[in-house]
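We treat protein structure as text, and this decision shapes the records that our systems exchange. This encoding replaces a full spatial description with a residue-level series of whole-number codes. Below, we set out a record of this kind in full and without editing:
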Amino acid sequence: MRNRPIILFLLPFIFFSITVSGQKMINSPFSRFNLGSLEPAGLFRSSGMGGTGIALRDNSSIYYLNPASYSSFDTTSFIFDFGIDYGINILTAGTDRHHSEDPNFDHMLMGFPIARGFGVATGIIPFSNGYYDIYETINESAEDQYTAYHSGEGGVSGFFLGTGISFLKNLSAGINMTLLFGNLERKNEFVFNDFFNYIHNTNFEKLRINGINLDFGLQYTINIKDDLFLTAGASMSSGKHYKSRWETLSIRYNAYSQNDTISYNIDNSTKAFLPGTTRYGLSFGKKDKFSIGVDLVSTKWSKAKIPGAEGYLADTRALSMGAEYIPEKLSNYNLARRMEYRIGMHVEDNYLILDGTQIKEYGASIGLGLPLPRSLSKANFFVDYTRKYGAGSDQIHNESIISLGASLNFYDWWFIKRRYN
């Protein structure tokens, strides 16, 4: 198909507006604080392996968490990857139980080589989700009963452009330039049951944030006999001040009057500060047969300065492990033997503190890579179960999150003239 590279090049821009404007409507009270609930990072191939990817490199995958991996792209090749996920969130607090679910676009990635050992990648990825919708009826007395409504929407996304290059035979380095941008809007409303004889209050909050930061990565591979390999990887970003705008509005009203503004404030001068992240990874495997990876990621979120988030931030550390197995990559007759089978697990300290307790997470995942006919392209699927909880506190609800994802990973060739049609 003569125009196929052009079509694939335009796809990210066609879907750009959908991804940026899309809102994942998974109801999580944890999204009420800081920048909302942080989204899992990495492409879906990594998601099936517990989120690992810092020390993985493959000529058909874009491991954007370590830009050094871009140096593995084949010359004249083109990679395009876009995915959607379906989330189910189950909240439990004592005997109370609530669930929400929603599908949403997750990511769009594109990568291609400039020369042998020199690759470029770009894409749109999620960073955080700020959606929630909760309420509570409070009985101060029989006469003063009121309902508190809390809702939020919006989130933060990232657009990155990066490059990776092999300096030596086994050493690669890379850099990503990432633009973070987004809005978070929150509403807190307090309505008395005696609507006509009381004054009611509504508070609005809006945070807008945007800015550019850099991520640096390294990978070193030791090739062992019989196509075995051992790869060590590391990537990091430094802390960054981002341009932000913080607005608050408080109004009061009753049944007989229009809204009366109590206060309205705008802060354009204070810049939000997001800390840097360090990532370390190690992988071992055999080319086109199996790979095992482990990652350790840490972020000093306690150093962050986010308007409206004072007192809710804690340092995080995450450990993920995963494995992939391919029975026979070049099997001509058995599709099941050409499939890529993945499994993984992860544990993490969440960046949110509530009731003096840091939220914890743990989870497990499985994944599958399905090769497409007569092509190096594939469809990737994963299922992940994650549980968030406040260890040792009966004042914090628990969340069980089931994520199902599907992505198409297109692998094509650039600028090759076919001799035969």
About this structure: Residues 4-413 form a domain with the Porin fold (CATH 2.40.160.60). The radius of gyration is 24 Å. Residues 4-21 form the longest helix (18 residues).
